Each structure stands twice: as structure tokens, then as C-alpha cells.
Amino acid sequence: MDATAVAHANIALVKYWGKIDTAANIPAVGSLSLTLSNLWTRTSVNFRRPLKEDRVFINEHRARPAVMKKVVHFLDEVRRRTETDRYCEVRSINSFPTAAGMASSASGFAALAVAAMHAAGHPLTPTDASALARLGSGSAARSIFGGFAELPGGDPANAPAAIQIADEHFWPLTVLVAITDDTPKPVSSRTAMEMTKLHSPFYAAWVDTAGRDLETMRAAVLRRDLETVGALAEHSALKMHGLMMSARPGLLYWNPGTVAVIQEVLNLRKEGLAVYFTIDAGPQVKVLCRRRDKATVADRLLALSGVRSLMLCRPGPSARVEEDV
Ligand code: PMV
Questions:
Q1: Are 72 and 41 spatial neighbours (Cβ–Cβ below 8 Å)?
Q2: Nearest C-alpha to atom 8 of ligand 1 is from which residue?
């Protein structure tokens, strides 16, 4: 009746943005991500106590109403699948700032899917856990898997789950997460995606070009070709942010620190280092480099006044249930 699970956040190297089916949360485009070692959510779910409603705590605080609504909706699906009518208590801790564009919804819903189904006595296979996590947040489907994962998109008849392309030992890359603002972002990805889909003149081109990006990225990851992976990750991120900026009203998640990190990455590349950036729906910048270059890159990023802190990651593991200690 209770269980604890840990899942790690991921960064998309080819981005998911836009849904083909909003209710079933089916992405319009396929995406490919890297799971991160030091960005994780640990979630405990307890159906044991008789409760009159679900109780949700994030980082020891009661969840805000908007978050509560999403989590209860997700728990209703767990109750439907497990034929339970009990409410539960959920306690979730993040190792990094919540809802600030650092993929807390990815690790959060992945950990919740695994913990809730386990607590309800119906542990899932990774593929089924991924399809369930997707209902909470598209990117959460990928956080079930360690290393590199791909989430197919574009098929409304098929409720997709992510697939692992390579595990966390395949390629020892470093990802530095440059935090430029740790407060929650003003517009959720869910709302922002809908605004872009409805109001950007470039949305059709985004969908049209996504398939080729995904094919190229998958092949480059499997060759461990950092130059191609990095250049395409930057392209996918800039294309997604350009799309958001072209919505009406336009959406800009960046701050001066975000731009400063991008420029420093370009400077490092001019100096001959293989260093690349990507940015999700928020102002933080994730910087990809070889392990041997991480100290040089970290020093340069920390010297920027817009960088509040830096988290160093390597490829992270799959979501898992924690045994009681
Ligand atoms: O999974 P969501 O609804 O939080 O959306 C994720 C969107 C991006 O992080 C910007 C891109 C991605 O593929 O993770």
C-alpha cells in the first residue's frame, strides 16, 4: 500500500513541442532525450491511511492548486487502472528547482507513475510505466529510461511510450545545467504549446522538419558523434524557441543570463572546444561537453554574472522503486 520511486529529469536533444491530441497527451513530433544523473525526484505514495481526498506535498509544502489538479487527475487514472477507490498521500522531493524549466514535470510524473502503481499493487513494465507517465507530461515518458530515450509522436491512433536508444553507460558525456533563475516559470509548457500551435505561422514547418531531425539525432548518438549531436541539439532548441517567439502573444523564456551562457558556449567553441547548448521551456541553459572539458567549461560559466549556480550531470539511470531502509 505504499512505495517510493526515484526518477531522473531529462533534456531533450530533439525537442517535443505541440500535441496532436491534448486529452491523451500525444506529441505531434517525436523527441530524443538524455536522462540526467543529478536532477531527480523521489516520490512516496501511500494508500494506507483512510483519507477523504488526496494529499500532495512537494518539497514538504502542500502542492499549489494548479499542480494539485494535474496530480489528482493522474491519480484518478491510477485508481481507474487498479480498481481502487482509496485516496492517497503523495510526498515528492526534487533535487533541483521545481517548475523552473528544468524538467521537474518529467522526473515528477515518471516517479509518480512508478510509485503509485507499485503502491496500488500493480507494478508496471518500463514500457507501460512510460505510456502512463506520458499522461502526466510528455517528457515524463522519456524519464522512465536511463541514458538516451526516444518518444515517438505524430500518431493519434497510437498511445506512445518511449524507447531506450542507449543506456547511461553508452557515452560518458557531461551536461552542465546553468541555473539563471530558480523561480517558477510564468507560463507552463502545456499552455505555451497550445499558444504556439494555434498562433504561430511556423508551426506546420516545425512539425514537417521534426522527423528528419529525429533520424539524424538517433544516428549521431549511436555513432557518439558529439559535433553532430551538439549542432542539431542547438538547432532544435533554437527552432523551438523561435516558434514560441513567433506565437501571438510571443513567448520568451530567456533572461540576460540565458543569452550570456549561449554566447559563452559560442566563445568556447571558437577556442576549439566541443561545447553545445540546449534550452527547454525556461531560462536555464544545459551545456553539453566531453567529460575531460568539464572543469574548463564549468569555470567559464560560473564566471558569468547571470549564472546563479551550476549542476554537473552525467547520463542518468532509469526510474526505479526504492526498497524500504
Ligand atoms: O513534458 P512537458 O509537457 O513538460 O513538455 C516538455 C517540453 C520541453 O521540455 C520544452 C521539450 C522536451 O521535449 O522535453
A1: no
A2: 280
For the 173-313 domain, the top CATH level (class) is alpha beta
DSSP per position, 196-257: HHHH-TTHHHHHHHHHHHHHHHHHHHHTT-HHHHHHHHHHHHHHHHHHHHTSSS------HH
Instruction: Give the DSSP letter string of 20-44.
Output: EETTTTEESS-EEEEEEEEEEEEEE
> Domain 2-169 carries which CATH code?
3.30.230.10
The per-residue pLDDT for range 22-69, each reduced to its tens digit, is 988 999 999 999 999 999 999 999 998 789 999 999 999 999 998 999
pLDDT at 324: 63
Domain ranges of the chain: 2-169, 173-313
Report whether residue 138 contacts ligand 1, using a CB cutoff of 6 Å: yes
107 CB less than 6 Å from ligand 1? no
Q: Does residue 190 have its Cβ closer than 6 Å to ligand 1?
A: yes
12 lines ligand 1 (CB under 6 A): yes
Ligand 1 atom 9: residue of nearest CA: 280
pLDDT at residue 45 in the model: 97
